[in-house]
């Protein structure tokens, strides 16, 4: 053990205290690009990875204004959005072009409270995710192709099951409980129910694929939120009243700009989850909206069972379900809803986060930057 180590009281092991040399070594070999700026936006620190990702040397970076070093408009826009986003801030994916090559970066921003003795005020972490995005795209393409191929045979099975079920239901007296026809009818019902679930799964997979596709066209139009929520609530009238759920709204901002179809898909999925998880008769779902600088904040809050802290970030992953047993039988779902929400919001340059307390409830918060009017 060298001089740079110290004993931890009550433990037999010893812990390294990093010396300047070790910190320098780690700093130079971090895969993540790190850029720190002071209160006036001058760059105080820039590691080699950040220099590499931005296409300039790390030593040339230090002492310059951040806006002069960031040459990619997309990256600068992402930084501006991150700066205007209240914490907790999710990271933002950004595509940049360096030396004729496209790179996909994941950018995170951390702010340092002004009352610390540190000179740095903001730290940007930049990860090159080009390869993992490429692999994810390959997997997604495979799933989308398979889903596409499944559509035709599924439609055929569904029509056959529905026709047989209709004739079994029309069979009258020979349908008596315990009879052969009755068994047949029950099996047909199981078949039909599962075909519908498969059809929903394939539909969700294809919806996810089109949300991720570069061909997706996003059209920003004026959205009148009370009307959109009213339309969604109408679609769920049966389930809301069956469970005796109260739907409350608090609109501090009624009108803003978004892609209507994408926003409706996202809000409908969040409301669908809230309905599924709140308790019967005491369930409350609250929809809130407000403006924050040039962003819109939308919240879907519920008083359901909450999501354990270790699962909160993972619920946006495809097929991730916290506890399959907890979900309601006939509305069990497949775990794709929140992945669809995340992609729909990301397509509008926004972000969505979940905040949850076990036993108290869950809030999904959507942030949408406001856009210039489009035809
Ligand atoms: N409002 C909520 N309260 C508690 N848990 C939630 C809530 N929303 C989502 N979850 C958890 O996150 C998981 C993923 O949600 P997601 O919407 O992606 O899938 P799903 O609702 O199970 O199925 P699908 O949306 O495909 O029908 C859920 O299974 C549930 O465990
Ligand atoms: Mg869902």
Care to describe what's here?
The structure is a single chain. By secondary structure, the chain is α+β, with helices and mostly antiparallel strands. It has 3 domains: 31-128, PAS domain (Beta-Lactamase, 2-Layer Sandwich), CATH 3.30.450.20; 134-212; 221-369, Heat Shock Protein 90 (2-Layer Sandwich), CATH 3.30.565.10. It is built from 11 helices and 14 strands. The strands form 4 sheets. It has a 5-stranded antiparallel β-sheet, with helices on both faces. It has a 5-stranded mixed β-sheet with strand order 9-11-12-14-13. Strands 1-2 form a two-stranded antiparallel ribbon. Strand 3 and strand 4 form a beta hairpin. It is elongated and about 90 Å long. It starts with a strand and ends in a 6-residue tail after the last strand. Bound molecules: adenosine-5'-triphosphate (ATP) and magnesium ion (MG).
Order of helices and strands: EEHEEHHHHEEEHHEHHEEHEEHEE
Name the CATH homologous superfamily of the largest domain: Histidine kinase-like ATPase, C-terminal domain
How many DSSP H or I helices? 11
Do you know the CATH architecture of the largest domain?
A: 2-Layer Sandwich
* Largest beta sheet: strand ordering: 4-3-7-6-5
| Rg, alpha carbons | 26 Å
> What is the count of distinct domains?
3
